Amino acid sequence: VGILMGRRSPKWNGKGSTVDFQEIILRRCYTYIRVVQPELGDRDCQKIKKAFTDAFISKDPCSAREEDYDLLMKLGHQTVPCDKTVFWSKTKELAHQYTKTQKGLFTLENTLLGYIADDLSWCGKVGSSEINLESCPDRRNCNSNFVSVFWNLLSKRFAENACGMVQVFLNGSISNAFDKTSTFGRVEVHSLQPSKVHTLKAWVIHDSGKTPRDTCSGSSINELQLILRGKNIKFTCQENYRPI
Ligand code: C8R
What we know:
Blueprint: E1 14-15, H1 21-36, H2 45-56, H3 70-75, E2 86-89, H4 92-101, H5 112-117, E3 124-125, E4 128-131, E5 135-136, H6 146-160, E6 164-171, H7 183-191, E7 197-205, H8 219-231, E8 234-239
Parallel strand pairs: 2-6, 6-7, 7-8
Antiparallel strand pairs: 1-5, 3-4
């Protein structure tokens, strides 16, 4: 053992599936529908667990398609009331604090499927019905991995369904508060429906103690403003929301 029978190096660059993935999604599903959002009404958590697992089990982890998640999206469908959608980019903690104190607001993690999947990792392997605990592909291996395709799809649907005034928390302590390669910049902004969304309100947040690196008058925010102008959606920007 040791030298001749050492551990093989992992196949993929990303970390393996979360241990107890199925138990975790089942438990989170029940917590969500019973405790977090009982208003949502009846959902079949066993079915949701099965649909989620069936989406990737036995499949090539680098060939995920949106269709793989069709049934899961159907079972997890949820509407967010107008004026209540909150997006974020590189400000996850802060956005979650905000939706915790301002009741009724929703980040994607405040919806059932976002809540279930937050911070988890998952993939399978061809020719096996097991979850891969060793490693999963990340962006270095392929774009069409199951985790990326899931978040892209869920984020797209979340933004397409938004209505009224929507908000976004951006990080002013990094060089591009609006990053067009992020999920927010690449997927969500472009999925907003001008027929439903009248205003996007951006909050540019500076970490106290750090020197601000981007502001409402910086060029990245200007880029965001131009995209919204093209869609006929009003844009407002404010720095440093504080009462949290
Ligand atoms: N959104 C995207 N990705 C999400 C997510 C989510 O709600 N929740 C988690 N855990 N993740 P980032 P971004 C994971 O770069 O790219 C939605 C994914 O693995 O700080 O702009 C949400 O509605 C993903 O690769 O932010 C939000 O508005 C990283 O975290 C944007 O998209 C993304 O982290 C945030 O995506």
